Amino acid sequence: MVSQNRYCKAFFIFISTLIFLLTAQTPLYAGIVTTTDIVEAQTHEINREKLSALLSRDDVRQALEAQGVDAANAQQRVNSMTNTEIQQLAANMDQLPAGGNLSTIEWLLIIIIIIILI
Fold it and tell me: Which of 44, 70, 88, 114 can bridge 83 by disulfide, Cβ–Cβ 3.0-4.6 Å?
């Protein structure tokens, strides 16, 4: 009886250890976050906020409504744009003249943005 109890206890410890080892979680791997990654993330957020602020202006909202574009819909589309699209749009908006001559590339960009917004 004593030896049977000893084997039963050893078997229980063996099974418990086996279950623990089989259910142990896989190790987590952390990557290095560079300064460039942090700056890019902040830049994307700043550009997104800049476009959102632009769309919230009354004159821009009126111009969009005059063209038949709902400002809330335009805001949703800006929110759904990828970081690359936001970066390209923000970079080109800063380079566009307030009025005057636009190059062919700038006209194409404006047409593409209007198509995206519609």
Answer: 44
